[in-house]
Structure formats: structure tokens, C-alpha cells
Design a protein that fits this description.
- This protein has about 190 residues and is an alpha+beta fold.
- Helix content is about 30%, strand content about 25%.
- It has four helices and eight strands.
- The protein starts with a helix and ends with a strand.
Amino acid sequence: ADGFIALARAQTIERDQFDHLDLRDVLQDAIDEVWAAAAAKQVKVINQSLLGAASVYGNRSMLTRAIINLVNNAVKFSPNETSISIAIESRVSNQHWVISVQDQGPGIPTDRQNLLFQRFKRAIHHGETDPGGVGLGLAFVRVVAQKHGGTIEVRSEAGHGATFSFVIPQNIGAGDGNRTHGSSLGS
């Protein structure tokens, strides 16, 4: 029920509910939120972001939940005692931020990737361990990305993990810097 309500809220969000914010804070909130689940599986979450401010104009709660969904999925599908890499990078050519979440899970066959962002669809194949869920988390992520003028991308193949990239426009001229910022979350 929570997932369905969150998806409905995301679909109705308007730009007057946006504020200027720093994606680094959103990312850290998401890492903090999934810490217990990662620790329980001894999955190390590594923040590899190497930049100063990552300014955007957006809805903090929606962005945070979208990134939590991505990181939580990475934890759920990662084997015990592995790591997840997370980073914010700038696509200077088209003035977008890219938050990437890379896991070491089983990967997603190309023929099932089209199901990932559809409501109530899941890319679990018979015989695979089902970590739970109803198929609304990635649909929510897609809607939040679209409402912020962005996209969600996936790169994966069976047996080689997955990388999800959440891409949204930069808030140009709002103090984007080049300082180094990074942290690591261990189990």
C-alpha cells in the first residue's frame, strides 16, 4: 500500500513543491536509510562521489525515496559480503547529474529489462531467489526522474551485476564546485 501511495504522490508532484538542494545530501540520506539492511547482509556501500556541490531543483523527499529504492534493490539482490558502489557524476556535455548505483548481483537479462520500470512487473525468473517486493519501486523511480526532467537507465547482463543510473538536470549557476567529497559505509 505504501508503494502505491508513494507512486500516486510522485505522479501528481508539481514544480512548486521543488526547492534548491544538494544531491550529496539526498545520497547520504539514502545510504543512511539502507544501512541496517546492508549491515545485515554484510554488504558494504561505498560512496565514490568526487565532487563539490551537486545542485538541483527538486523535491527532496521524492528524490531521497527514489535513491533509497535503487540502493535498497542493490542490497536485496547483492550476495552477502559483497559491495555496492554509488556515485554522483556530472555529464558536462548535457548538464545533467548522474547518480549511479552498481551492484554485484545476478544481473538482469536483456530480454527482461523492459519490465523493470513497469508497475507491478518484476524481472524475477522462476528458480531465482525472490527478495520480495510487488513491482512498484522502480516504477516510482522512473516517475520521479521524469518529474524532475530526467531519466533512469540500466546497464546489466545476466551474471554480471547491474548499474542503475538516475539522470536529472543540474541546477546551473547554483555554486557547483570541484571539491572532493566521498565517504564509505561499511558493515
